[in-house]
Amino acid sequence: MGGAGRDGCITLANAQLRLDIAPALGGGITRFDWRSEGTLVPIFRPCLEPSAATDPNELACYPLLPYSNRIGGGRFQFMGRGIDVPCNRPGEPLPLHGDGWLGAWDVASESSTHVRLTLDRRNGKPYSYKASQSFMLEGATLVVTLSIENTGREKLPFGLGLHPFLTREADTELSAAADGLWLCGDDFLPVRHVPAPPAWQFGVAYPMPTAMINNAFTGWSGRTSVMWPKRRLSLTISADTDYYVLYAPAGKDFFCFEPVDHPINAVNLPGGGEANGMTVLAPGESLSREFSFTVERSGEAERRGRPKQPAGQKARKTAAVVR
Length: 323
Known about the structure:
The protein is mainly β. The protein has a single domain (10-319), classed as Beta-galactosidase, Chain A, domain 5, CATH 2.70.98. Helix content is 2%, strand content 45%. It has one helix spanning 300-304; strands spanning 10-13, 17-22, 28-36, 39-42, 61-64, 75-78, 81-84, 106-110, 114-121, 129-138, 141-150, 156-158, 161-167, 173-175, 180-184, 190-195, 206-207, 213-218, 223-228, 233-239, 243-248, 254-260, 279-281, 285-297, 316-319. Strands 8, 9, 10, 11, 14, 17, 19, 20, 24 and 25 form a 10-stranded antiparallel sheet that branches.
């Protein structure tokens, strides 16, 4: 498959997976399914009828750049400068998730199993950048690569991540070992870092808590497993990041496991963004991160040994030639 359909989506497919991408909707994913005996089994919560009026939070997944989550007060200090970050969503009192998820991306290249999108934000303020997203189906694995280049005139801290909405059933289990987490206030901004409590350690497969979770976890191994026992399916998520945000609203049929390279409000935490996972990019420098999602029948990974780490296991920061 491949090519944009009537709903503006591009479909990638192979024998095991199907992926629908909407370039005009923040370059987001509208569905990601496991193909089983002629049927499609949703792995990400599907957006069944995408249109120009679709809210990004109805998508199955979207990119997080040039920062993830909220920035307290819409402002931070960096190298002696006060950096103002505008609010970007009606009803949201703080800037949220950058602007990559709110823009229309261009299709740079595509085939039946691969597509590359680009976004030009060279006129953006305070973040001026160019970005790309690459989606590749490799057997039972979806590989997503995000890249961003600072096209501004000043250094700034940049961060990358993904925001997938995973399907949640009564028996869904999560294994996502982390050392600690940031407790949040009523505004969802972090207030205190603590060791992960027993119910939220997720060191082994653990049922999803019934109470609301919306926290950034630290010291992540970069590898997570999601299990749906009744479906006999598992999902392995791998990323070259040390953090994730877990958003699990009570009573919903989805939860969000967001692999990110920095916690919420990193730019205003002690030490600033650079001390909390973000990468300071000078003009012309770039950053890339890779995220993989492997779907398998339950137990297959254990029987044959764990899959390899993704190729981009470390952040890649390079200086481009300025012309």
